[in-house]
Write a structure and sequence with these properties.
The complex is a heterodimer of chains A (467) and B (641). With 467 residues, chain A is an alpha/beta fold. Chain A has 18 helices and 13 strands. Chain A has a seven-stranded mixed sheet, sandwiched between helices. In chain A, strands 3-4-5-2-1-6 form a six-stranded mixed sheet. In chain A, helix 3 packs parallel to helix 16, helix 7 packs across helix 18 and helix 16 packs antiparallel against helix 17. Chain B folds into four domains: 296 residues, FAD/NAD(P)-binding domain, CATH 3.50.50; 140 residues, Elongation Factor Tu (Ef-tu), domain 3, CATH 2.40.30; 92 residues, Arc Repressor Mutant, subunit A (Orthogonal Bundle); 60 residues, DNA polymerase, domain 1 (Orthogonal Bundle), CATH 1.10.150.570. In chain B, strand 8 and strand 9 form a beta hairpin. Chain B starts with 22 loop residues before the first strand and ends in a 6-residue tail after the last helix. The chains are: A alpha/beta (467), B alpha+beta (641). The interface between A and B is large, with 57 and 65 residues.
């Protein structure tokens, strides 16, 4: 009979792949080496993508470079071992990656793994469960196997514990609540067509979804913590030629802050200075002056690079010559991450300064610092302003939850976001509901599993059901 | 509504002697009838015992069958050759597809049924089962030896059998409330059952109490229909049963009216007199089926609530006003009913009431619906904390099939969450339990896009055939359809066209270079069958059901592929079976909390364990390890099947 049932099941194609799973086998704390284990069909692919090399010999340790999928930067020099199926712990293809202990390296690696399709973090005990399924039960008789499982669970538990506290979790829980409500309204109009569910529910939900998409998109673009931690906060000094940009960067560099490196190119290229401001790594770039009409190709290229830098930086310092009148097109460059730096304080009278600030304030420009790049006055105040801004804006980055938790949060949020984006008015409501459910499931990895009963609670609370 | 003794004899005894019955089904409601028919189809001599033969197939609540989720259940039961779909086709007086404007996965067929025609249809379908006898008698108790069924106890004798399916509905300790009046009863005018409640308690079953209600019934002649909105049957009717092509019963309309401020005022003023609000009823009622009192208290800003006036039959003078179930005193029921447009002169034939009854906590059941505490006893229907004819019938068919398979010493019949709504229903009941009467919604099925009404036969009939619950006639018809579907699918799958080629044929789509077959094109909103027929006239020959099947498959493809991947994962967990006789107390290192839960719920496979809330992964691995060791010792075989 059971045999018959099994035969039956072949009617549906169950041969589809299972997700490939990974988990960090080491504890969360500091350790010199951290191990990430990967199991599943994609293991082979992961090796190739991350190392940009052919698959190595089975069960041999290789010292090999791992590269970022998006920008090819180096993640770490790691020891990677390839274990082909079936002679592995789970019975599936497995990969073991040993990386250096810093949390940002592990974070970087996990961020990359989660970018690969059908790859996800393992649930507690999932490696062992797969071993069971594939009759790899001999392993289970081995000494110490329970320790391993307990460790696996403990690791997941400590992750989970971090997930329920902290500011970031509050935001995620808020989104989860919102999504659940939206799904409930969707399901309400699907399951109760004859009840008193308002006719325009579908449209209403869709417009609320698009609001939520914007909110999440903003969050994702604002909180690129991984980049910030790895590269530091990027500050771009911008402005017209000859307003004192280079002098400013020299003044900052002169201060009692450690200069890490200095790259110089032509005057038309970008000069970067790395500094540490109260232990926050910062990269200050001096960009080429923004000219309306670049004279030659070299200048043109300089302007293009400057613009790119301006777009990607975390903070802009817009330097202006205080002795000259403001130009409207330059003021247009001001956004919410800009500090206006009024230079040449030494040449201005106090009254002059007050008038200038008044004018800017009237135009709703309020983040202003007045300095003299020539004699250095006002530089300390400017640095304080910068520090204050960064600490406010990136407080979660430097003072928030453990970095690994944040990486997971971001990865699942991105999954949630991708599914939400699929929702639109031209699709059947049940497909939109499915997208919504998938995005809730993604977020559920952080906020706790989606439960039908909780959704139904909302349906019956918000609508009068009961024909 | 009362016993009519005339109706007593349904047919002569088909099974030679009473002592030969193997399966006994107690209760002649929707669960009982389906269970009895299924047990008999599988091949065991079966006896259905009911208090009252004239109540076989009675619809004690509203006269309608199907709807969202519920319609899916009916189609699935029909795919296993059950009787609820066929009976509805023989008695439906208004057929409508709900959600027609939405996608095929969430469309639900619903029919108003003529109560008498329905009962007649059920009786004649039962009569056709050659292994089934019906007996009118009161069952006093179960005959239990060594925690296993050995028969049932009647007033004058014991009838031995091997398995029992118990389907007593709301009859266990049933108590009716109208205002402050309390009447012990199972249905209005029918005696409740007490002995069995005691037996359950004796064997340590955990019982709970639930509440449900009905509206007053109104005389058709006393209603002014001219003032009301008419709701007709669909023009083109699809039957429930895959065995039927059309409906022969005459179709009649329903009417819609609504409550108004005056109605609300009357109810508000008298709210404390309602059995629910006076504190007389303490048990939980369903949130999706609130009484009119609940609606008015909970949704204060709503000025009106719809009422659907449903005919109880072609020749019946009774109208069922759906939407105003109540337990207010009789005079107030009359007052508020007569405040409603069209019902100004309404004559009430039977007052609405609330009923409280015992249910058995379904966590104590296994996935075949056999109880954990008494062997060979199966429970189905409202006794398990569900509500609805369809939910009852769905459990009935599973319990009946398994009770019969057990007698024949054949392997169990279990449907997974990924295979059927029936699977979702039973899995939810036995692993999550109930807090209110359980009703099916499509949103309960995580694989909703796969579990559709239209493919119920493709999903379940083959399994029904191999289990033995599908008769030859259906088998033949199904195989024909399946073959044709495969043929057409194969033929058109390969016929693909590039966007450029399609442009030449007059179909404009994105020039993405992707080759598509005819059914892939139906994903686009502005392309339909008619348009395709203009270009390829030959597809006119494809039968409707087959065309729709292929269309749906193609529209849902991306999503279904993802769901299949999840199902694969689920299936693998379900294949890891836990032996029946496993004593969890023997497993080392299990937390007390886990131990209690596992001993109470007794999961049958790894999938079920993981769906029990709060059981830790370490506990799961511990169990697997233990089972593995034990099985190795006993059979030298690796434990996974």
């Amino acid at each position: 009979m059971i045999v018959k049932q099994k035969k039956m099941d072949k009617r549906i194609n169950y041969k589809l792949n299972l997700d490939t799973i990974f988990a960090s086998a080491s504890s969360m704390g500091l350790s010199a080496i951290k191990t990430v284990r990967i199991s599943g069909n994609e293991a082979k692919k992961i090796f190739k993508i991350l190392t940009k090399k052919k698959l190595s010999k089975a069960r041999y340790s290789n010292l090999i470079n791992l590269y970022d999928i998006k920008n090819s930067s180096l993640i770490d020099k790691a020891i990677v071992v390839w274990f082909p199926s079936p002679k592995t712990y789970t019975g599936e293809d497995m990969l073991e990656i040993n990386i250096h202990g810093g949390s940002s390296v592990l974070e970087h690696l996990i961020e990359n793994l989660l970018l690969i399709k059908n790859v996800r973090e393992a649930n507690p005990g999932e490696f062992t469960k797969r071993a069971f399924r594939n009759n790899k039960i001999d392993f289970l008789e081995a000494e110490g196997i329970m320790d391993l499982i307990n460790a696996e669970t403990k690791y997941q538990k400590s992750l989970a514990m971090h997930q329920v506290s902290g500011e970031l979790s509050t935001i995620f829980k808020k989104w989860n609540k919102k999504l659940l409500k939206l799904l409930a309204h969707f399901e309400g109009q699907i399951d109760f067509p004859e009840d008193e569910v308002p006719k325009n529910t579908h449209e209403k939900v869709i417009s609320q979804v698009s609001d939520l998409i914007k909110e999440i998109e903003f969050f994702l673009s604002e909180n690129k913590r991984g980049d910030v931690i790895r590269h530091g906060i990027e500050i771009a000094i911008i402005g017209k030629p000859n307003v004192g940009k280079s002098s400013l960067i020299n003044q900052i560099a002169k201060k009692d802050i450690s200069i890490v490196s200095k790259t110089s190119g032509t005057t038309r290229d970008i000069i970067e200075t790395k500094i540490n401001l109260s232990n926050i790594p910062i990269i200050i770039s001096d960009t080429a002056g923004l000219k309306k009409r670049p004279k030659n190709n070299v200048e043109k290229e300089g302007v293009v690079r400057s613009k790119r830098k301006i777009k990607n930086c975390n903070l802009k310092l817009l330097v202006m010559d205080g002795t000259k009148n403001f130009e409207k097109d330059i003021l247009k460059l001001v956004c919410n991450k800009t500090i206006i730096v009024l230079n040449k304080k030494d040449l201005l009278s106090d009254k002059n300064i007050v008038n200038k600030i008044k004018y800017l304030n009237e135009n709703n420009l309020n983040q202003i610092s007045v300095i003299s790049a020539k004699n250095g006055s006002g530089i300390n105040t400017l640095l304080n302003e910068i520090e204050k801004y960064i600490k406010y804006k990136y407080k979660n980055v430097f003072f928030g939850e453990p970095s690994l938790t944040r990486t997971r949060h971001r990865a699942y949020l991105r999954k949630c976001f991708i599914n939400l984006k699929k929702i639109n008015n031209n699709k059947n409501p049940e497909l939109n509901a499915e997208d919504l459910r998938l995005s809730l499931n993604a977020l559920g990895n952080v906020t706790g599993e989606y439960e039908v009963e909780k959704m139904l609670d909302i349906v019956f609370k918000d609508f009068c059901i009961g024909k | 509504m009362f016993n009519t003794k005339k109706d007593k004899k349904i047919g002569k005894s088909k099974v030679s002697r009473e002592t030969n019955y193997k399966v006994i089904v107690i209760g002649g409601g929707h669960a009982g009838c389906e269970a009895a028919a299924a047990a008999a189809r599988i091949g065991s001599p079966t006896l259905l015992i009911t208090n009252n033969k004239s109540k076989i197939g009675e619809m004690s609540c509203n006269p309608s069958i199907g709807g969202l989720g519920k319609g899916h259940l009916v189609k699935e039961i029909d795919s296993l050759d059950g009787i609820i779909g066929k009976a509805t086709d023989l008695s439906g007086i208004q057929f409508r597809v709900l959600n027609r404007s939405k996608g095929p996965a969430v469309r639900g067929l619903r029919a108003q049924a003529d109560r008498n025609l329905y009962k007649k249809a059920i009786k004649s379908l039962l009569k056709k089962e050659k292994n089934l006898d019906i007996l009118e008698e009161e069952v006093i108790d179960l005959d239990i030896t060594n925690k296993s069924i050995s028969g049932v106890v009647l007033p004058k004798k014991k009838v031995p059998c091997e398995t029992v399916v118990l389907t007593t509905g709301t009859f266990l300790n049933g108590l009716i409330h109208i205002g402050n009046k309390k009447i012990p009863a199972g249905r209005i005018g029918e005696k409740a059952t007490y002995g069995l409640s005691k037996t359950f308690k004796k064997y340590g079953f955990k019982l709970g109490r639930m509440k449900t209600g009905t509206p007053p019934r109104i005389a058709k002649k006393s209603i002014n229909f001219k003032k009301l909105i008419k709701q007709n049957s669909d023009k083109k009717i699809t039957p429930f049963s895959f065995m039927n092509n059309s409906i022969k019963v005459k179709q009649v309309p329903c009417f819609i009216t609504s409550t108004n401020e005056k109605t609300h005022k009357i109810i508000e003023k008298n709210i404390v007199k309602s059995a629910i609000y006076s504190g007389q009823i303490k048990s939980t009622g369903p949130r999706y089926c609130p009484s009119i009192e609940d609606k008015i208290v909970r949704f204060k800003d709503k000025k009106q609530h719809h009422i659907f006036l449903e005919p109880e039959g072609l020749n019946s003078d009774v109208i069922y006003p759906n939407g105003i179930s109540t337990s207010l005193p009789e005079n107030i029921q009359k007052n508020f009913v007569q405040s409603i447009v069209g019902l100004e002169n309404a004559k009430i034939l039977q007052y609405g009431y609330a009923i409280e009854y015992d249910y058995v906590d379904p966590l104590q059941l296994s996935n075949t619906l056999e109880t954990n505490k008494i062997k060979n006893l199966y429970l189905a229907g409202q006794i398990n904390g569900t509500t609805g004819y369809e939910e009852a019938a769905a459990q009935g068919i599973v319990a009946g099939i398994n009770a019969s398979l057990k007698v024949m010493k054949k392997a169990e019949f279990v449907l997974s969450r990924s295979e059927a709504y029936i699977g979702v229903l039973i899995d939810d009941l036995i692993n999550k339990g109930v807090t209110e009467p359980y009703r099916m919604f499509t949103s309960r099925a995580e694989y909703r896009l796969l579990l559709r009404s239209d493919n119920a036969d493709l999903r379940l009939t083959p399994k029904g055939i191999s289990t033995g619950c599908v008769k030859k006639e259906r088998e033949k018809r199904f195989k024909k359809k399946e073959l044709l579907l495969k043929k057409i699918d194969k033929k058109y799958k390969k016929k693909t066209f590039s966007p450029n080629k399609l442009l030449k044929l007059g179909i404009k789509i994105n020039l993405d270079g992707k080759k598509r077959n005819i059914f892939d094109l139906l994903v686009f909103k502005d392309i339909n069958r008619k348009k395709l027929e203009e270009i390829w006239p030959e597809i006119r020959q494809i039968p409707n059901d087959i065309f729709e099947e292929l269309e749906t498959k193609s529209v849902y493809k991306g999503y279904v592929d993802r769901q299949l991947q999840d199902i694969n994962d689920l299936k693998k967990d379900e294949e890891l079976k836990i032996p029946d006789n496993l004593d969890y107390n023997e497993i080392p290192n299990l937390a007390t909390e886990d131990l209690e839960k596992l001993n109470y719920i007794k999961p049958k496979n790894l999938g079920e364990i993981t769906r029990i809330s709060g059981v830790t992964p370490a506990a799961v691995i511990n169990i697997l390890r233990f089972v593995n060791k034990k099985t190795n010792k006993n059979s030298k075989k690796k434990w996974a099947i």
